[in-house]
Amino acid sequence: MSNLAKNYNRKKISFKYGKGSYLFSSDGKKYLDMLSGIAVNSLGHAHPTLVKTLRYQSKKLWHVSNAFQIPEGERLAKKLCKKTFADYVIFQNSGAEATEAAIKVARRYFYSIGKPNKTRILCIKNSFHGRTLATIFASGSKKMTEGFGHVGGFDHFKFGDHKSIEKKITKNTAAIMVETILGEGGIKVIPDWCLQELRKLCDKKKLLLILDEVQCGIGRSGDFFAFEKSKVKPDIVPIAKGIGGGFPIGAVLMNKKVAKAMTPGTHGSTFGGNPLAMAVGNSVIDIVSNKKFLDNVKKSSEYFFSNLNKIKKKYPYVIKEIRGKGLLIGIQLYTDQTKFIKKLMDNRLLTIRAAENVVRILPALNVKKKEIDLALKIIDKVCSEIK
Length: 387
Ligand SMILES: *Cc1c(COP(=O)(O)O)cnc(C)c1O
Description:
The protein has 387 residues and is of the alpha/beta class. 38% of the residues lie in helices and 19% in strands. The protein has 2 domains: 15-46 and 291-385, Alpha-Beta Complex (Aspartate Aminotransferase, domain 1); 50-288, Type I PLP-dependent aspartate aminotransferase-like (Major domain) (Aspartate Aminotransferase, domain 2, 3-Layer(aba) Sandwich), CATH 3.40.640.10. Strands 1-2-3-15 form a 4-stranded mixed sheet. A 4-stranded parallel sheet has the order 6-5-7-10, sandwiched between helices. The protein has a 4-stranded antiparallel sheet with strand order 13-14-17-16, covered by helices on one side. Pyridoxal-5'-phosphate (PLP) is lined by residues 94-96, 99, 128-130, 179, 183-184, 212, 214-215, 240-241.
């Protein structure tokens, strides 16, 4: 009997070790990992540089406290700001903490300019921003909030329903918060022109724009941030998942304007930004933010998408749509998602579900061509077995 609570629907498999894109199960089988701990293991498993960094730092210093200067955190914050719109960073330990902090920053900004009633955040219905009390209500999902009372302060519009967005803005709206690419919600990309319109709307109504890049950020889209090509400058961007390469790190990135509101005592975290986490984060960003590395993500993405679309053509009664960007890929099925994922797993390919009957594929960002070929072969085989 397991003493772990039953809040997860776990598959009956465990792993002994991992190497690159492969996971080795306790019963001696080799699996191609195409979910990467849900966009977390951005450099695959046991990446030599990350192992070296962790080893080195673990012998020096793990944790001090944010009561002191943390040079490793200074360095990571500097890199994040240099590469992006941001001027300031607060570190956390997870995505939900990062989005929660984003909400706090937005509210605190309006408080600091004498508009304390501007607290409401406008979000996409059935999006995903994490599992804290506030962020489940930000997601606007009945399934996630049921039985947890009520946390107010969130309004919602339907994905793609452009006309309703402006109508949902009230005098108390502080910000619009969306995932640049909806992950859990079914790998739905917000097109660049929509991001630009959202920015314009926020400017017109004097709102803040929060782009949740917890899943789609840190190279996952082929650019460092998924909104980069749109040239849109958000005010606040929560990140997490990929930035630690498997070590728990979250962060909220902010421009100068809003960061001014975050004075001493307004936010904090015991663990957030500790030297061990920051050392690993620095190593991840040094690799991932490199132009050649990102060009290679784009190349792998093009190869993956063009071949998945060929498979879609071959099995039009199985696959409805191939969605996504970069190496955040969704296969929307006509047939049962759960059975499909199980069959892929029986063929030693690990993937994970998303909403709207989508099979999510999140390879390591440094995935090799022959690993993509193997995944394609297995997907083709499983499709061929569906009548
Ligand atoms: C995963 C995710 C979160 C929550 O991150 P946790 O680390 O699980 O708390 C928030 N936003 C998005 C877009 C995510 O994909």
